[in-house]
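[retry 2/3] Phage integrase family protein: previous attempt timed out, resubmitting with same input.
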Amino acid sequence: MEHGKAPTAAKGSEQTFAVGWLDVVYCVTNMRLVSRLGEEVGEQNMPTANLPAIRACRPAWNKGRLIGQKRPLLPKHVWAIRVRLEIAGNHRDLALFNLAVDSKLRGCDLVKLKVVDVYASGQVKERASIIQSKTQRPVRFEITEGTRKSLSRWMEEPLMVGSEFLWPGRFHERLHISTRQYARLVRDWVSSIGLDPTSYGTHSMRRTKVAEIYRKTGNLRAVQLLLGHTKMDSTVRYLGVNLEDALAISESVEI
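[retry 2/3] Phage integrase family protein: success.
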């Protein structure tokens, strides 16, 4: 095919070719080829009503899968995972697990944490603050005593000497672990205590502590601030709060 010329096809036929990074099937009608942007690759434009449908070559990633909100871990699950990681002597995973629960950060922010974000003056901070990747807004989180101890042990590992990132990658081309690797670790953690890995994910770690806070206090505003949400509606949907939850809280209050 010569540069600058559009491919041709017979009427009613289909032809597949690459456009940018995506391979798309283009349906050709009336002897004219229509581009992905709805423009004819030729002399005239085809009426919008006659534009052919564009079908992706690959099926949707979630086709045929049951995809829903991931469950938070219960306190007994948290302790069971901690004990297993402690016995195994897996200092990195224990520190990562503990900080994931405490920080309530999205996976993309958790894996990018730097040493300076949580470590200063030779010790782990009691509170830290970062700018969220999704919203570009700051969010603060606490680092409890148990988490500080596990982080201190992790900082003493040879791999951490001179490391900029808190969770450095195993290979030189990776500055830190990826969100996909973090997701695999979460699946391993929940599987190790007999839970169904399809029901849990990285957002389970983010929900775990705030779900318990909401269950004990019913304070949605506090949960909103801890999650770094800008709208209360987002927090309500994220926690899956419904009328039954509201009534249960109301019943626990006597006047």
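[retry 2/3] Phage integrase family protein: The chain has two domains: 1-66, 75-203.
[retry 2/3] clearing retry counter.
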